Amino acid sequence: MSAELAEQVRQRRTFAIISHPDAGKTTLTEKLLLFSGAIQIAGSVKARKATRHATSDWMEIEKQRGISVASSVMQMEYRGCTINLLDTPGHQDFSEDTYRVLTAVDAALMVIDAANGVEPQTRRLLQVCRARNTPILTFVNKMDREVQEPLALMDEIERELGMTVVPFTWPVGMAKFFGGVLDLRKDQMRVFSPGEDRVAGTEEIVDGLANPVLNERFGDVYEQAAGEIELVREAAPAFDEAEFLAGRQTPMFFGSAVNNFGVQEVLDALVDLAPPPGPRPAIQRTVEPDEGKFTGVVFKIQANMDPAHRDRIAFLRVASGKFSRGMNLKVVRSGKTLRPNTVVTFMSQKRELLDEAFAGDIIGIPNHGVLQLGDTLTEGEALQFTGLPFFAPELFRSVEVADPLKTKQLRAGLTQLGEEGAIQVFRPMAGSVLLLGAVGQLQFEVVAHRLEHEYGVKARIMPARYNVARWVTCEEADGGEKELKRFIDANSHRLALDAVDAPTLLLEYAGELRAIQENWPKIKFHALREHAGLVFQQRMGD
Ligand SMILES: Nc1nc2c(ncn2[C@@H]2O[C@H](COP(=O)(O)OP(=O)(O)OP(=O)(O)O)[C@@H](O)[C@H]2O)c(=O)[nH]1
């Protein structure tokens, strides 16, 4: 069994695709799936695009929710590997969700629009990848358009994202003079021909980067590319696997997703360079992927489209061992046992019933609230995986029901939406009005809409005076619980409890924080907390 398991793990790649909206993530995803033969026509990937023309933002989100259950995780087979591809929501208001998706992958594919270079959302996402040392592959897209010079792009990525860039391919020209890419490793040029429906692997290949044919055929743009390559070869370091795996060095590829050009190289790089599932830290110990026993962690919860059923899908990353349908799983937090029979996988864009899954795979477990974000599932062992982040909200609202008789429904609805990670809910220690905290404005609209349609509660969402939240803790050496209680007693008027009862300081101005920190040097203030009240020390700024 363990030899089989080790082999299954070795053949797995699990990665997220990240970019600023409109860089071509959807298009690239679709082409990757086409290449691997996972789909004939990337139906649901295309469908996602159609929703973009919806009239209002939250309606769009509503529609996307349904589609994205199917399209947010995709599995494909390529060159003997099982590749799990996780999509990340493009809208920055939903970046918390994206951050959590990034905890479930072993690598990330960054798509850059060659005209726009590094954009704000790329920067934010990269910060999270860097904090976790996630290896990153870079695809520079839209070379068929008027774009930035490749040297300038390379420089920008290095400077802005703090990684060394190692080009694996180099473009010859751009826009209508885009001739193709020089493959620096295979010593050949792949010639570009436009066409959305171009079949994989049919491009013309000319051997030898210095082949005189290239100069004759492409003239100036070839000469320029050859000159740039010389510069790059002198300046850029050689590819170093350890640096790549540590997230400090990124292989860079050029292409045009819409023209199906340069996509196969990316898929090959995922197989050849991206790492298989590795060990994952839990509070109690480190878990190896090829351990015999199953363990997994819930990193995303998504409500299903059918509000009448209220079922939700918990997305679980298998951290170790093998999952088989019908096996008993212990939810470590609650001690409850689950025996999921209708676990789904996401092969070929359809939710299919799944019989088995291995470390690295993503499985979906429909449930009615038994599973929460961050939950660890095991065959019995008491284990809690760490690392699922919750960010201190930056926007706050108070929430009340129009009809006081619906108070119970409001609380129930908010509890579920909070567990799903759609919003953060705080109960102030003084007073009874609930507070909502979000990272993006759109989250409030979605919550109001869903409260009404899924829970039958018309909620009044009103301005709140807070702008800053910090989770507070105190280490044992600094007085621990006792000192924390002293702090809480003295500040209860500006403290609230979050969904897992972690005490949180709420402030109107960031400036107040400094004064409080000075007065309470033994208390730690955190902008990021992990599931189960554990805390990251690190500040993840903008
Ligand atoms: N010219 C050109 N256009 C492209 C290329 N790849 C994608 N596009 C276009 O760029 C636009 C955005 O592409 P998408 O794939 O929808 O971008 P996205 O990153 O998924 O966007 P979000 O879903 O908003 O995150 C679409 O109109 C694509 O047709 C390319 O290689 N060349």
List the helices and strands and how they pair.
Layout: H1 2-10, E1 12-19, H2 25-36, H3 43-50, H4 57-71, E2 73-78, E3 81-87, H5 95-102, E4 107-113, H6 120-131, E5 136-141, H7 150-161, E6 164-167, E7 169-172, E8 180-183, E9 188-191, E10 205-207, H8 212-235, H9 241-245, E11 249-254, H10 263-272, E12 280-281, E13 286-287, E14 295-303, E15 312-320, E16 322-324, E17 329-331, E18 337-338, E19 344-345, E20 352-353, E21 356-358, E22 362-367, E23 376-378, E24 389-391, E25 395-401, H11 407-420, E26 424-428, E27 434-438, H12 442-455, E28 459-463, E29 468-473, H13 480-491, E30 495-497, E31 503-507, H14 510-519, E32 524-526, E33 528-530
Parallel strand pairs: 1-3, 1-4, 4-5, 5-11, 6-11
Antiparallel strand pairs: 2-3, 7-8, 8-9, 9-10, 12-13, 14-15, 14-23, 15-22, 16-21, 17-18, 17-23, 19-20, 24-33, 25-27, 25-28, 26-27, 26-30, 29-31, 29-32, 30-31
Helix pairs in contact: 2-3, 2-10, 3-4, 4-12, 11-12
The structure holds guanosine-5'-triphosphate.
Tags for this model:
Peptide chain release factor 3, 30% helix, 542 residues, GTPase activity, 8-stranded antiparallel sheet, alpha+beta, binds guanosine-5'-triphosphate, 14 helices, Small_GTP-bd, 7-stranded mixed sheet, guanosine tetraphosphate binding, 33 strands
